[in-house]
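User: Structure tokens for this complex, please. No commentary.
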Amino acid sequence: MNAPVRTRDAAYVEIEGLRRTFDVSRPWLNRMIERQPRQILRAVDGVAFTIRRGETFALVGESGSGKSTVARMVVGLLPPTGGDVRITGISMTDPRQAVERRRLRRRIQMIFQDPYASMNPRWRVRRIVAEPIRAFNLIQGEAAITGRVGELLTLVGLHPDDGAKYPHEFSGGQRQRVAIARALASEAEFLVGDEPTSALDVSVQAQILNLMRDLQDRLGLTYLFISHNLAVVRHMASRIGVMYLGRVVEIADGRALFTAPKHPYTRMLLDAVPDIGMTGRQRIPVSGEIPNPIDPPSGCAFNPRCPFAKERCRTEVPELIEGVACHAFQERRLPL
Amino acid sequence: MTEPVLSVRNLRVAFANRRGTLTAIDDVSFDIARGEILGVVGESGAGKSVTGSAVIGLIDPPGGIVGGEVRLQGERIDTLSPEAMRRIRGRRIGMIFQDPLTSLNPLYRVGRQLIETIRTHTDLSEKAARGRAIDLLAEVGIPAPERRIDGYPHEFSGGMRQRVVIALALAAEPELIIADEPTTALDVSVQAQIIALLKRLGTERGTAVMLVTHDMGVIAEAADRVAVMYSGRIAEIGPVRDVVTNPLHPYAKGLMGAIPTLAQETDRLAQIPGSMPRLSAIPKGCAFHPRCPSAFTRCVVERPNPIAVGAHQVACHLYDRSEASAA
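Assistant:
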């Protein structure tokens, strides 16, 4: 292995060949009696992309595409089976960089879909928001911590007095604001949001999306944004990766992806989304569903649903070349 | 003029609790014509699902209909006995819910559930009912229905299960289908297939559909008319294209602006401050006035009634002619 070259200062997160498998076999005794082999689910299979400092990179895909698994590996909640995640050049897996990684950790925070599940219901909000400050020993003295918590709550559009309340006293949108305040409390610069607005009503979703963009402008944050909602992703992301069955099938700039999608799956997905901007539009019917990830199709995983599939697509997994993983695209067989 | 399949007039639904009565639905009126899909949209707590439950008489005590009337093909159904209502449910009004697993019995094969439903509502023989069940499964787009009919619900994927539930709802050829968030739990590619299926029901069978959802995109694709609900009332109702492109009610305007769209890039989404009031604290006057950018004194004291503006009905004082002439 070559020593990592650290010339790319634009890349904040680098992900290479990321893989993750889960053993979903039945218990040993059942396997013996029923003569079944081990069953391995490949949730993420060779994902690679980079996120530049200060940008919003989004991963979209349907359920089971592996987007959340990637997010969990990026923040270090889940060890990868293979490949590596490097953030500011520091590996999230290499044991030799454990010390640097510990310092890096507080700069990375995650925002979950259900903020209520990630908060201690018996703690007041000021204690919840202060926890990272205390854990990382960032500010000394109770008065200074209280002041900082008030600042953070104001930053996310709440009142400093809200710190005295418990999580259940807030609405869903306000709770998500508390979660963002807590994420920022450790002076985070990289936020990973896993469906952060999916549980919210649209008017509240707009408030949170606007808040996330404002914070990015003010604090220069870098986002990895995971969502199944393409319209939200279009609104938030500068670059987008489309996932299908554990692989990235297309990576493109936001505008390019939505105006000129290349991969047949991306095209199908964009065509399928119900959207208020396209009332009464005639849509092309979509066929089939995502196959079972335990037993994915051979070759390109999309081949059973793809109108352009040929023999090669059924045998050979396409590489991601120029942002598209598709044999038909590389062979210039796709209509433009 | 032909009679609408469903006609709801001044419907009020209230829930009693220890501290008093909470009015979940307040003075809601709408019609659904044959073959028409009416979308009912709103954020959580707007009362859209309760409206659907009230129509099929599924509001459990301590809640109940306290005013207004519900008519199916001109016949009042809100005053029927529970037993008479039970016979209408399933036969004349079909239901589709968000989670198909709650509508299916996991211990019975899909075919048995379909055949049982068909035989309850018709006088077909066992064999004829099985043939009909296979036809229904084929109609909702399940491949190899003659084989799949003997599968259990867990052997079907989410989208396929929802199709089975739609087949169940169709079993007795109802005049009206109430679909409460039928596509919310599904992936987009499957969602599109279910929407297409619902639309086909309207055009081919003349089934009227009440489509309850929070997803404005689904409404825009599927519905002919849309009712936007807020705090238990209809804020605006009109043809879907008009309401989406040219909403009149300030809440509907805010809602449309808050939804990110694929069609164009928006720098900033419109933002409605605050959130929907709780049922226990609905503001006096117009329930939207504390969040409304154009509220004036009358909005605080007087509740607006629906006013016809073009093809829309809007419950907003801004569109009252006497107000405009006074200003």
